[in-house]
């Protein structure tokens, strides 16, 4: 959940600026937003309470550059600069709790063209706010397959983390909420399972984990990759392949995975109870393993953690 308190600073195109003064001209929204790309990153307070641990920062920044490349946007800052921006912002804002980070890039200046040209120079921002992790709460959610189809590579590449892609997820989410569910699950143009509105999805059946392949119309989720690694650490068999809708109905466990969602068990799908209707044993084990990892208790994947000392 997003905190409501205004942070003191954000990072904008090379320097820290007071959050309240980070303004643009009215003509800088609208068509400019169509091309804009972003990331969502989390910094967790370490279990020792002495530092923040930014989770897989380099992987998130690399995906931001991938998104910019596909959208043909020019980001005039290198990876080290953006890494420094993220860490410097956490320190400047004095966070002593979990914080969400939102690096994003949008065409610079006043944009009146309908089609932002290729090679347009972007401003890069890093914004941040506190969040409360749901990992330890152990809750679940009710999901439903959406009547909205996931955007396809043939129209708008789902591999890109572009603001425009969220029109698709938003329509699906509103439909799900209207029908009394928490979250949608979208099928792709081949009627195979793709992902949620802002998270990837996996199912457990007969002790094996199955998740839609990266060519199923999904964002190449960093949490998805983390979970697959944790499962291999646990000795659990994992398959990445096309997944049918009806497989969701036969799953022993089902869970969303994403930076914001973390690991969120699905306890009902299209009104059918999943397993016993409570988060299953593997989902709970994974949530515990993920917590240990992001809070620095599990030393096996230390290279995924960027340490920022508390102010
Ligand atoms: N799919 C979509 C559409 C998303 O917005 C997100 C969140 N970035 C994810 C999947 C999960 O990706 P990640 O684990 O990298 O946050």
From TrEMBL:
It is an enzyme of class 2 (transferase). It catalyses: L-valine + 2-oxoglutarate = 3-methyl-2-oxobutanoate + L-glutamate; L-isoleucine + 2-oxoglutarate = (S)-3-methyl-2-oxopentanoate + L-glutamate; L-leucine + 2-oxoglutarate = 4-methyl-2-oxopentanoate + L-glutamate. One of its GO terms (biological process) is L-leucine biosynthetic process. Its EC number is 2.6.1.42. Pathway: Amino-acid biosynthesis; L-isoleucine biosynthesis; L-isoleucine from 2-oxobutanoate: step 4/4; Amino-acid biosynthesis; L-leucine biosynthesis; L-leucine from 3-methyl-2-oxobutanoate: step 4/4; Amino-acid biosynthesis; L-valine biosynthesis; L-valine from pyruvate: step 4/4. Keywords: Amino-acid biosynthesis, Aminotransferase, Branched-chain amino acid biosynthesis, Pyridoxal phosphate, Transferase. Its cofactor is pyridoxal 5'-phosphate. The keyword Transferase applies. Belongs to the class-IV pyridoxal-phosphate-dependent aminotransferase family. Acts on leucine, isoleucine and valine. This is Branched-chain-amino-acid aminotransferase. It comes from Pilimelia terevasa.
């Amino acid at each position: 959940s997003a905190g409501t308190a205004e942070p003191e600073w954000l990072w904008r195109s090379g320097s820290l600026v007071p959050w309240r003064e980070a303004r643009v001209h009215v003509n800088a929204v609208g068509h400019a937003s169509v091309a804009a790309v972003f990331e969502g990153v989390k910094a967790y307070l370490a279990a020792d309470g002495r530092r923040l641990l930014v989770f897989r920062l380099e992987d998130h920044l690399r995906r931001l550059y991938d998104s910019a490349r596909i959208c043909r946007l020019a980001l005039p800052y290198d990876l080290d600069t953006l890494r420094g921006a993220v860490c410097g912002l956490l320190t400047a804002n004095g966070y002593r709790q979990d914080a969400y980070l939102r690096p994003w890039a949008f065409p610079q200046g006043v944009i009146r063209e309908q089609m932002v040209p290729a090679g347009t120079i972007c401003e890069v921002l890093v914004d941040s706010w506190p969040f409360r992790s749901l990992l330890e709460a152990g809750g679940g959610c009710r999901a439903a397959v959406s009547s909205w189809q996931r955007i396809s590579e043939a129209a708008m590449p789902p591999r890109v983390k572009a603001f425009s892609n969220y029109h698709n997820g938003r329509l699906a989410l509103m439909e799900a909420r209207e029908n009394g569910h928490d979250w949608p699950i979208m099928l792709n143009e081949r009627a195979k399972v793709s992902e949620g509105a802002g998270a990837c999805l996996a199912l457990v059946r007969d002790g094996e984990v199955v998740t839609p392949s990266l060519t199923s119309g999904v964002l190449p989720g960093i949490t998805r990759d983390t979970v697959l690694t944790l499962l291999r650490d646990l000795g659990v068999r994992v398959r990445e392949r096309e997944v049918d809708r009806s497989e969701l109905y036969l799953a022993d466990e089902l869970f969303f995975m994403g930076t914001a969602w973390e690991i969120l068990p699905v306890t009902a799908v299209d009104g059918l109870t999943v397993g016993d209707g409570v988060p299953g044993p593997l989902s709970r084990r994974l949530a515990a393993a993920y917590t240990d990892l992001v809070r620095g208790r599990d030393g096996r994947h230390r290279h995924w953690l960027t340490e920022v000392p508390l102010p």
